[in-house]
Give the backbone structure.
Amino acid sequence: MSEQSNKSRDVAATVNRLRMLQVDLADESDQVRQEQLSEVIKRALAEIVPEQRQVFLEELRDRFPNWDAGRTGQVGQKETIAAPDMYEDLNDPDFLIEKLTAIASSLSDDKRQSLAVKLKQTGLLPSTDHGWSDQCYQRMQKMMPGVDTAAVDPERFVETVALLFDFAVKLDPLVWSTWRKVAPRSSVHASGDFKESLLKYLQDKGELSECREILEHLRFLIAGIISAFGQTGSQFSRYYMSKFSPSQIEALVDIEKRKIWVSREVKCWEKYIELARSMNDTSIEREFMDQITHFAETLMRGR
């Protein structure tokens, strides 16, 4: 760093200290203020090499012009430094910011928040208030723990909502269409059109409770279908074994008391062939779908 930049930095630091000190001593007498200001200047000069002190004092004088309370007194052989009117400092934004920063750690949370609101109102701080109520912020915090909801970008939030909206409005008709194919005789039906209900609510023409009910119904249907697929395999296996297992066929043969001159093995084989003729692609699919329907409906009605 050059000597010129070092000198300018030292002058700026000294000026800021003088200004802050002057405000702190506003209620003190002129003599006390002069003594304290002079002491700051003497300490600053002690850090400056002798041949550069005159230049330092001249630049300090330019940055710290005369004030109406007199002068600080002699600080060297020839140099007398004047101070500005303390009220002029209150019009210097850099000085005010530095002063505020210096006392920020001692402020209460309520005071910090109050100052932040005032700074936002003047436009000095960017506003993080996107027009959302406290209730909205609380719901967002509950949905997204660990996320600074006040820093959530509104455009990104809308994009996220758009993704979820597109997903839901496309999934709703697809699930119910599939359900009608699986269970055409089922008494479980859609309670409404989700997209239509949501758009009505957004335009203040409908109730959120209606949207919630439709989504809840859809959620249980999806859960029922998915759970049914996990159970249908074992249920169909039990159904098949209940009809075609050797023990079941033998029991049926014994009940029917078929021709006595035909061997038991032949009777069982004939019974198996009779039962197998009733099984085809359509009947197997129908049985499979009935198992899914039964399990899904049981789950949904037991919610």
Notes: Residues 208-244 form the longest helix (37 residues).
